[in-house]
What we know:
The complex is a heterodimer.
Chain A (H helix, E strand, L loop, with lengths): L9 H9 L1 H10 L2 E3 L8 H20 L9 H12 L3 H28 L8 H23 L4 H13 L7 H9 L6 H31 L13 H9 L8 E3 H26 L29 H9 L9 H14 L4 H4 L12 H22 L5 H30 L3
Antiparallel strand pairs in A: 1-2
Helix pairs in contact in A: 3-5, 4-5, 5-6, 5-11, 6-7, 6-9, 12-13, 12-15, 12-16, 15-16
Chain B lengths: L2 H31 L4 H5 L3 E4 L9 E5 L2 E7 L11 E3 L2 E7 L10 E3 L2 E3 L6 E2 L5 E3 L11 E4 L2 E4 L4 H11 L1
Antiparallel strand pairs in B: 1-11, 2-3, 3-5, 4-5, 6-7, 7-8, 8-9, 10-11
The structure holds FE2/S2 (inorganic) cluster.
FE2/S2 (inorganic) cluster binds next to loops of chain B.
Subunit structure (chain B): The main subunits of complex b-c1 are: cytochrome b, cytochrome c1 and the Rieske protein.
Family (chain B): Belongs to the Rieske iron-sulfur protein family.
EC number (chain B): 7.1.1.8
Amino acid sequence: MAKFEKANSVGEWLDQRLNTTALTKVLMTEYWIPKDINFLWAMGVLLAVTFKILVISGLFLMMYYKPDVNLAFDSVNYTIMQEVAYGWLFRHMHGVAASVVFLIIYIHMFTGIYYGSYKQGREMIWISGMLLFMTFSAAGFSGYMLPWGQMSYWAAMVITNLFGGVPVIGDALVVWIRGDFNVADATLTRFFMLHVFLLPIVIMGIIGLHFYTLRIPHVNNQKGEEIDYDAEAEKYLTGNKKEAKVIPFWPVFISKDFAILGIFLIFYFYLVFFHYNFAMDPVNFDPADNMVTPAHIYPEWYFLWSYEVLRGFFFDVGPVKAFDIGLAAFGFANVIFLLLPWLDRDTKILPAHKRPMFFIWFWVLMADLIVLTIWGKLPPTGTNAWIGFAAAMLFIILFLVLPIVTKIDAKKRGE
Amino acid sequence: MSNETNRRDFLGYTFAAVAAVGGAASLVGMKQVWDPLPSVLAGGFTTVELSGLKAGEPQTFMWRGKPIFVLKKTTDMEDNSRDLLIGDDRFTVAIGLCTHLGCIPAWKKNMWKCACHGGEFNPSAEQVFGPPPRPLDLPPFSVKGTSIVLGEEGPEYKKIAAAMMA
Ligand code: FES
């Protein structure tokens, strides 16, 4: 056993047993961050905070929510919203955070794409990040179902129906996932379990992995410059702070994150108090009814782009049904981002504005995603259907040409 | 290699075998926990009496939580290979969920119209307009006198299902 001496303070007592000094060094005061990064790199901290808000507000909601088809709707819309003191606050905090978390995830993701932060050595950061996006999507969907309103019900109907597209076992798979022939009580209780326990635990695990993946390749910077972290850290520690290209995460870098976090939280609480409606579809204030469908159904805004890719293919091609083409395209849209590190054939890590072709590619992708998002909410009839089709095609083509585009950039630079 | 190592290897392999059997068994158990309960499966049969239906006015019944459309055809509605013949009467039996994205179409005059994206189905449940990729699905049923039992695959069902495949 290690030798324990009488400690002179609580800190010392803990240090002897838990080695807290070394731990804070590794995690905070000697965790090095490049100086050359902008506010877009604060999204990680914003996400961590938003996730915490979701967990805590969720705990408070869980104390009154009842996962039963007969009670769920009233437990949310009556008990939590009217009876529980500040119940409305926790519901709006939860609902708004669930929406905002996707906004930040998208910014985080496209920052990574713009600066090439998924390349050479940072593949695991990218992959664990995409896994987080997927589990967040699953958590968002399973939670959306819980209030048991009309939108909740029909969203669950459509999404579980998608599994019917799996060859051979499709129909049986749908029944198995639902635990009933229809979306029913069994479905609600199992999605409740997923939403409040299994998915959050998985998310926490992947967040741990995501942080860990940063340790070896380190965080990217605005120029994509390769930094010798040991040498730069040495400079900083010997007092040459001005020339060192790195700063410690705590307390130096985090102060910038805090400033941005402050602005974000003001924006977030502004939404919570004055614009919570954007996260609450009016249709969802009708209780679920399996014999009446709302006139027009669509997912929350953050799923619209992939929903539109699914819907975009509305005509059969030869013997292949439109529905199956859409499903295949939808599958493509959901896994293709994972493969980004291998689709990008440029040998250097550079920001998009230093890669002329990729720069165009990036902004076309942005524009396409916005078009998909907008048209995902419009009824897919007439010209809307064709615009949806074109945008969905463009999305797929963009990823098919990415290896060529990035290769050309590298060639032009003479590599 | 020493004896000691072999013994440890043996213990390791034995444990792996026990764990593999236990793991496989629990996977089977976990799969079955998600299966529909017996009470749900038992509720999978619904009897619908057809003699009271008025020609040209479809009725909606609930089976397995899904709407089932039953339409007694009028004489001027077209014949179709999917018609269910009982005596002199022709019926259309269909699951009332739009084959596009699952909305419930409503009967308007002489066809089912889906409000969601404008899909339309004729009295024989065939898609005639809009995005639905196929006719309304046929639920399994068997005929008992003048009523049908939804959830059983009778010979009449098999015949119609085969005709729809062709
Ligand atoms: S769900 Fe009926 S037309 Fe789309």
